[in-house]
Amino acid sequence: MKLSLPDIVHVFATQGDRAYAGEGVNQREHALQSAQLAEAADASAALITAALLHDLGHLLNDQGETPSLRGIDDRHELVAIPRLRALFDDAVLAPIRLHVSAKRYLCARGDDTITAADYRAALSPDSVRSLALQGGPFDDAQAEAFITQFFARDAVRLRRWDDQAKVAGRATPPLDHYLAIMASVARG
């Protein structure tokens, strides 16, 4: 089933209170904090939308709370893509699809602001567990192949916001604020 903007709002309204994999925030808070960080960084409307929706697959593919504790990779980065394809183009979808690979890349190479070792050391316990389930850090060839893809650098930016969007009680704009931004990049 393809999702519309009202469907996305409904998913966040009905499932957004679910805990975010052992972190101090729920899924909605994590999504809103990610989008807020993207907006504060003057990201494009498409990348703000990707930041908001990057973990929507967790809500669409219900594997229960913290599936990594049970050795499950829920492949959340891929689950939402077919359902969002009619609504958004690759400027939104590719960073969502690539944000897990971006973690693997950052664990191998780091970026302009953090070394790979420091990045790995800063991962939450659940991110460490899921990293192992997702294939671990890239080797040199995988890292090079990743970063040369279209939208890979956007995915790395998204990943950094994802990692920072786990602050209990952080005030954010409401979902309606981001609905307007999503609408501005939606097809049709």
Describe the structure.
There is one protein chain. The protein is mainly alpha-helical and 188 residues long. It contains twelve helices and no strands. The model has no long low-confidence stretch (mean pLDDT 90).
Key words describing this protein structure:
mainly alpha; 12 helices
Brief sketch in words of this structure:
The chain has 188 residues and is mainly alpha-helical.
The rounded Rg comes to 15 Å
- Number of helical elements: 12
Shape: globular
Strand content: under 5%
Structural class, from helix and strand content? Answer: mainly alpha
Structure summary, number of beta strands: 0
Order of helices and strands: HHHHHHHHHHHH
**Major sheet summary line:** none
How far from one another are the termini?
18 Å
Helical percent range?
Answer: 55-70%
What is the overall pLDDT average?
Answer: 90
* Regions with little confidence, pLDDT below 50 for 5+ residues: none
